[in-house]
Amino acid sequence: MRFSANLGFLWTDLPIPDGIRAAKAAGFEAVECHWPYEFESSVVKQALAKSQLPMLGINTVPGDFVRGERGLLALSDRTVEARAAINQAVAYAEKIDCPRIHAMAGIASGDVAHQCYVDNLEYAVEVAERKNIVILIEPLNTFDNPGYFLTSTSQAVKIIDDIGSESLKMMFDCYHIGRMEGQVVKKLSALLPYIGHIQFASVPDRSEPDTGEVDYSAIFSTLDELGYTEPLGAEYRPAGMTTEGLGWMKTLTS
User: What angle do CA 102, 223, 183 make, to 5 degrees?
Assistant: First the structure.
């Protein structure tokens, strides 16, 4: 297994360029982050180049995160902002050679929100595929994200099928799926053709993956058997200092 450090959770005490360097020193083979936009793309690209790590994914901006917003694409009164966020993410991703963008849905529900989300995803796919970038949609659990529009793998699959583009995939976060649906190994195997990136954390406390209810040694072994070779995103909240909790990189893959 190969691993990607999510800098939205790991080394959060460091600016993203320094986090990239820390991830390299710790043995990660890639990085990903949520919102890198406060840093000039040239600075991030330089850190990636010097560390010889790819940036696997970034997110569209969530709106006002402090006030509880978690994305814009399903918000029917925010289409102009949603498409500006898509354009911003695609432009930034292109500059740092990032192949994936998580297009955040937001807090919404109902048929109007669904149609708005689909329309904005179609726009996102159209813009992104010109740059060979894949758009990801991620079901989030309702314990941590009450009211989020996209909450299940079946909902994500239907949207992907309806839009019908190879440039639209699912972000399969084992933590979120574990909390909402369970049967993580079974779902990974069944949904692999729909998956564009995989993330993980312990369930239910979202800390290092060598704790909790989900057996990640079994998950990593299954993905290996399935021939999955892309780096897996470590998106967990360290119980202590990030570097002190990285023993799982050896114990879960030996």
Answer: 80
| CB contact at 8 A, 184 and 153 | no
| Residue 102 bridge partners (DSSP) | 59, 136
At CA 247, angle to CA 241 and CA 249, rounded to 5?
115
CA 164 → CA 57, 160, 168, 210, 245, distances in Å?
21, 6, 8, 37, 40
Q: For 115-133, what is each residue's pLDDT tens digit?
A: 999 999 999 999 999 999 9
Class of domain 3-251: alpha beta
Buried b (16+ CB within 10 A) or exposed e, 121-130: bbbbbebbbe
User: Quick check: is 138 catalytic?
Assistant: yes
Active site residue 208: no
| Among the listed residues 24, 21, 34, the one whose alpha carbon sits nearest the alpha carbon of residue 3 | 24
Report field, pTM of the whole predicted structure over 0.70: yes
List the domain boundaries for the chain.
3-251
Given 29, 32, 138, 208, which residue is catalytic?
138
